[in-house]
Write a structure and sequence with these properties.
single chain, about 500 residues, 2 domains, six-stranded mixed β-sheet, binds ligand BES, binds zinc ion
Length: about 500
Amino acid sequence: MEVKADARPFHEIDCDALVVSVFEGEKPETGVLADLDQRANGVISSLLETGEFSGKTGESVYVPNPGDVKARRLLLLGAGKAEDFTTDNVRRMAGTASRTLRGKKARSFAFVRRSSLAIGDSAQAATEGALLALFDPDKYHTSDKTENHLATMLLATGATNGADADEAKRGIERGRIIAEATNYGRDVINEPSNVMTPTALARKAEEVAKSYGLELDVLEEAQMKELGMGSLLGVAQGSAEPAKLIVMRYTPKVPSQETIAIVGKGITFDTGGISIKPADGMEKMKYDMAGGATTIAAMRAIAQLKPSVNVLGIVPATENMPGGRAQRPGDVVRAMTGKTIEVINTDAEGRLVLADAVAYARKLGATKIVDLATLTGAVSIALGDVYVAILGNNQAWVDEVIGAAKKSGEKLWQLPLDKEYREQIKSEIADIKNIGGRKAGTITGAYFIREFVEDTPWVHLDIAGTAWNDSSKPYLSVGPTGVCVRTLVNLVCG
Ligand code: BES
Ligand code: ZN
Ligand code: ZN
């Protein structure tokens, strides 16, 4: 779908539907709302009077033939309380509008700007919301596919001067880059594991690197062995698919001293290995590479937005399978840093591949690291599907990432990482063991990774609860959410 700014008055915009938000408690007495109410023969005041519509978030009313406007339909959306209104409301409302109108077979709609939020920010949020909402996970049906005729979204900005129009245009462009990258990542996550093997994931990274001008290096198992990555290779050895260590690199025109490494867990299928998972729900473990796909997606946007820092995107990609050569519980492996690990549970494989990947990020010169992973089931117990857990070894860096998330409309909640938790991953025979028992599973998982980043500022994002949406929402389809792409892009690009 194309997104364009349109400065014409709302009633002159010729399109299938006009989308107008109404704040809670708002009366159609002044401005756009009064004008619209008059043109639509009082339909807004009548809906408000009867209480059929009150402007609460999530409410919507669809009005056919709304009267003296060029649009053929009117969609009213509840915007909630004016004082609580943020760009995230814009994102969700644009999402709700595009999913609703896709269902009504519309080809075009105009989204009327009604808030006093900065015009560029709200244009970006509206673009993101609409494009993200139209993500279609339905790839392999051969009939009854989701129909989409939506080709154009117009942002009725009401811009009266050139500066505002330019700002809206820039916001749309940035929103489009970020949303398209996110949807690209979601498509990669959504692929079944027989398609999205480690080799295929590396090819995706190659496709992105070629299209957007990034350097790419894909390490094979032999090279990983030479580097001493026994922790990553221990996981890979149970699978017939060769592991890949994907390294993407963005370098700014003006040299920078800073290198941010984004490191994403790329387990293309997690059976649990010899500590095998129960059959029920195991099919979902195709999304265990969401961190990796998110890394590739973020790099795709970063390459286009061209920030002024060096950025590495690193994805340790392998399956976790219980093949004849698979590692066994009790095995001891040696990571690239030289630390020895007792593998108590082969299903705690994410931290094992990340241990070598974060160490490699340091070797390549990372000055700050963010890793993201579908690391623990425990994070869903703690935070459900609402918040991503964030943990780190440097509060300033944690705060920076939380700040970037706030700007993106993504929710991060910090969990503690005090030294006391180290006790739980002490091993009798090695430097560390890979599980810490039932208590504080998300924290001990993060603590394990911490042991391999040494003194580099690092944060860990556990996206196991948030990377997959189980039930569709008005602004979001079921399936991969692409969570954290926006946060990472904002973090790096400001
Ligand atoms: N990939 C899983 C975590 C996961 C679970 C992601 C559910 C999404 C939904 C991870 O590799 C894993 O199996 N973690 C174990 C760790 C445990 C053995 C310490 C878990 O969470 O049960
Ligand atoms: Zn696992
Ligand atoms: Zn896993």
